[in-house]
Write a structure and sequence with these properties.
- The protein is an all-alpha fold and about 60 residues long.
- It has 2 helices and no strands.
- The radius of gyration is 19 Å and the shape is flat.
- The termini are far apart.
Amino acid sequence: MPVFRNAVQPWHLLIVLAVCLLVFGSKKLPDMARSLGKSMRILKSEARALRSEDSPRS
């Protein structure tokens, strides 16, 4: 679809960040980012464990 070719511009990200700041407040955002990072690390390690579990062992 040619309409969505350049859908995400840098200023879109700034607007999203500003809206998040207004909705959640500046005190909650670092805690949310920290918990998101922790969740991503857990997900990555679990996916790695599943991959190594599925690989054939010689």
